[in-house]
Amino acid sequence: MNDMEFFIRTMPKVELHVHLEGSVQPETFLTLAKHHHIALPADSIAGLREWYRIRDFNRFIEIYMAISNCLRTTDDIELLTREFLISQAEQNIVYSEVTFTPYNQFLNCSLDMHEQLNAVNRVRAWGEHELKVRMGVIVDIPRERSANAGIEIARFVVDRFGDGVIALGLGGPEKGNPPSKFQQAFDIVDQAGIPCVIHAGETDGPQSIWNAIVAAKARRIGHGVRCTEDPELVDYLKATQLPLDVCPTSNICLGVFPSLEEHSLPKLIESGLSVTLNSDDPPLFNTTLTDEFLSAGMCFTWDALLIKRLVLNALEVSFLSESEKRSMGQRFVEDFSRLESSRS
């Protein structure tokens, strides 16, 4: 392990774009499916890993919905959350903002959304006490659902805001489901002073990002990597410093870019945009946040200064309070300094 790899693996991190359901490991997925007598396309770990190989967005949605279908009890939700936080702690990801889609489990098996969040919160408290890692929950609308479903989810977010819930999100298939479809839902949370984080500019182009900005008053954009197709949008994103939560490996697996070398990430950074690095759905894309830093750092020859900047930028654009950001940021700077001293 060289000095830079050691620095990346051990440095403190913040992750802002990672899905709870999409974090399930094949072993756990298979265990849950067998426990609930749910047939999967494969009945072995090797078979599931092969099935996990994402070939396009439709396959990704197929796998994601199959995972949701295996989350049948609050014990399942607790298991998933516990394994997720252990993985984050192993990477020294001190704080995560985690997208959670309880509406899917509600539809699949009538698992109450409040009970689901209560389960997440029990493990969230355990993780903070036992692992010294923190997480906030972004409850998202699956955009293939109806506008009325979006309203129901928005009301749930208003009801539970501050109880682990930090924002309303929007995820799922972009094409045919613009943010404006859920205008009423966004208006509900906006009136309550609750921020929105919108997936946009991934499988659809710049117009999807513009729509997220106008309809949802988005505080962050999940992905946003196709903004480079619209120079006016790039100028707007630079002027406003509206953050983009970028997930390079996910983009490559879903065919947004053919390779990491051809990804827009370097251009986004060079254009002065606010960018964070994230893993999206780690096992589904065979990655972790640590792997994202390692692969991008090597591909784009990043130095420690840029890597630190990306970490601190994620902290700065998170939904932590300003005092929490200052306190955590000070600890991060001290850790960076200690790690760099050990390299010299």
Query: Which CATH class is shown?
Result: Alpha Beta
The order of strands across the largest sheet is: 1-2-3-4-5-6-7-8
Integer-rounded radius of gyration: 19 Å
Which consecutive residue ranges, at least 5 long each, have pLDDT under 50?
A: none
The helix-strand sequence is: HEHHHHEHHEHEHEHEHEHHEHHH
Give descriptors for this structure.
alpha/beta, 344 residues, 8 strands, eight-stranded parallel β-sheet, TIM Barrel, globular, 16 helices
Describe this structure as you would to a colleague.
With 344 residues, the chain is an alpha/beta fold. The chain has a single domain, classed as TIM Barrel (Alpha-Beta Barrel), CATH 3.20.20.140. The chain contains 16 helices and eight strands. It has helices spanning 3-10, 26-35, 45-51, 57-69, 74-90, 102-109, 113-131, 147-160, 183-191, 206-216, 231-240, 248-253, 265-270, 289-299, 304-316, 322-343; strands spanning 13-19, 93-100, 134-142, 165-171, 196-200, 220-223, 244-246, 275-277. It has an eight-stranded parallel beta sheet with strand order 1-2-3-4-5-6-7-8. Helix 5 (74-90) packs parallel to helix 7 (113-131), helix 8 packs parallel to helix 9 (183-191) and helix 15 packs antiparallel against helix 16 (322-343). The model has no long low-confidence stretch (mean pLDDT 95).
